Predict the structure.
Amino acid sequence: MSTSRISLTRYLIEQERIHGTLPPQLRLLLEVVARSCKSISLSVTKGALGDILGATKTENIQGEVQKKLDIIANEVLIEANEWGGHLAAMASEEMDSIHVIPNRYPQGEYLLLFDPLDGSSNIDVNVSIGTIFSVLKKPENTPAVGEADFLQPGSKQVAAGYCVYGPQTTLVLTVGNGVAMFTLDREQGSFVLTQENIQVPEDTQEFAINMSNMRHWAAPVKRYVDECLAGEEGVREKNFNMRWIASMVADVHRILTRGGVFMYPWDKREPNKPGKLRLMYEANPMSWLIEQAGGAATNGQQRILDLQPAGLHERVSVILGSKNEVARVTRYHAEAVK
Ligand code: AHM
Ligand code: MG
């Protein structure tokens, strides 16, 4: 397929024709999500000129102070997706419980999960942020949709993606046939296909982790990073570079573009918490994208997409990116328990 001016709509229709795996309702849903991202992107670019910077007085269910843009992005996604008839319910990082489509609208067969504004700490400092989303199918024969319907492993996702609001606004998507990237053409107001069949290099010399937590890490993570830091003189016999943007969308985008390994592992600060990032609307969609691009994603022990969620806001340890590096970190975890 030529990449000259293929819109998101055309790409999705062609996916439907070629693979026959993209039902019209799912296509519609993805178009609405993309439209919401366009609207969020417009708010983001207003910066100090719009009433979008700063914090609110509220906290979300994870006890994090909500930024104005967290709330705005959440509302944009809810309002845009509520009335189209393709969804049964939605779940978000910013809402305690699920949002069932109100009775006045028809109910569809899909479930949408999202982190409306990922990288919230970067909003006010003009660093890339994004929206992450995941789509599941509502289990059949469930009369009234409930939270339990959402608790499906990531391997059951039917679509996943993110939109990064950076120097460019880029939408990255998988419906299970590889990963495609679309750049927002602001003059035309549409997402245009700019890259297909993204492949994450199997090896890398770049890692991403918040180094300030080093003293709290488990031994396998410390071993891996120490070896990277030892560079040419160490066992890896090559130098490594480090990047940490503190927006998972931006770090994952870099990894999809040029490889790397991203880690937000379990650490000793709160031993009962499996990690910082949320399984259902952060780790699962990102893990599927990375796998679809030939990379890997584990929690140190298991493939993330195989994890059975027990709760909507469940957290997880995340190691994802270039296949061979993820395998190495996962192997270090296995060796540590022997
Ligand atoms: P958020 O969804 O509230 O923005 O939190 C998730 C973000 C990730 O995007 C990023 O990788 C991580 O938190 C950064 O955490 P830290 O500030 O501990 O480095
Ligand atoms: Mg997030």
Remarks:
- The helical segments are 8-19, 24-46, 68-82, 147-150, 219-230, 248-258, 279-292, 323-337.
- The chain has two domains: 8-196, 206-336.
- The chain has a mean pLDDT of 94.
